[in-house]
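RECORD CONTENTS
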Amino acid sequence: MSADHSVTRDHGATRGRFVIRQGGKAAEPTHSVTTPTLVIADHTGVPDSLRGTGAGLALVAAARKDGFRVGPRGAFGNATRKKHSARADVFV
């Protein structure tokens, strides 16, 4: 199943997140900002209602579009990095 996802970005000086909201639920990877273009994704929360909809890949695409490289530290980020080689340029 696939859906169009609108991703918003909430960034501070040292912490941030990309967010997809749908049906009162939110999918979001939270991260630590290490440089202006490198973030360390430390947690990704995806509710069951958004699993399998492409929400996670939309979050990765948003990071790429905004010029970020991502150091994945959680299970989702590492699995995505390994499974989707076409997105390898986003991960460090």
